[in-house]
Amino acid sequence: MSRQLTDLEILGELEPVAAANVTRHEAAAVEWNPHDYVPWDHGRDFARTGGSDWSPEQSKLSDVAKAAMITNLLTEDNLPSYHRQAAKYFSGDGAWAAWVGRWTAEENRHGIVIRDYLVVTRGIDPVALEQARMLHVTNGFTATAEEEARHRTDFLLSVAYVTFQELATRVSHRNTGKVCNDPIADRMLQRVAADENLHMIFYRNVCGAALDLVPDQALEAVANVVEHFRMPGQGMPNFRRNGVLMAKHGIYDPRQHLDEVVRPVLRKWRIFERNDFTAQGEQRREHLAAYLENLERQVIRFEEQRDRRFARDALKAEVEAV
Q1: With a threshold of 0.70, does the pTM exceed it?
Q2: Could you list the residue ranges that cross the membrane (predicted)?
């Protein structure tokens, strides 16, 4: 029978792994300051201090870039919720506490720099942005009733989820920088994406160690996360509309989710090469493999529908231009 451990036991067994990865992270992390990535000379006062308030024509961002920037920033803004979740499922002292503190401090910089950029360049309506921030942070990010029913709120599920989520966020930030048509924004979001990648590596290494420690338990967590994954931005204002725009224009779409997030992480953990699962674990792995095959079919359908939509839009533009 596969070894079964409690969350507390797993935390204790994996603390040396966490400590080693905190040290690795601190050595690899680049110290940077948000103010160095913001074009301050583009800024001017708003009406309350004698200037002029925001108006749509002041933004140089496309609708797609705006949607992506808002989604990415509000995701970063919800840091208090993520910190609460991490503090709840990680130990309150030792290497785990050191990591949660470091991770929180680094993530906070992302919200600072993106907001400063958007306000200074007048890329987004700052009033609407603040209203959305207030609403999203007030609502927070918690497990849904369905997730609670699946027991997705334990330690293994947390580290598995954040591994995929950090990598997904890295992809989203990086591609957002590319569509902003501004080298300053691109440079800024490259910096943010690099942080997210280092965060992903910490969680990926911890979850990989958990797979070695309790293979069946960790596989169950990984499979649950893959099969029921949702981005942390769920619940923010206009999330669905903005997500559709981002998917349509290749900022974060189903193909990227499968090929740049899910599959690389599963390969790193050697999920389909391991031989340390019990019969129950093997059965769970087969179920995961079937899910991935179905997801591939869904991705292909999405791409075909998107291509047809682009073709129709191009034809319509040609007709209107005549």
Answers
A1: yes
A2: none
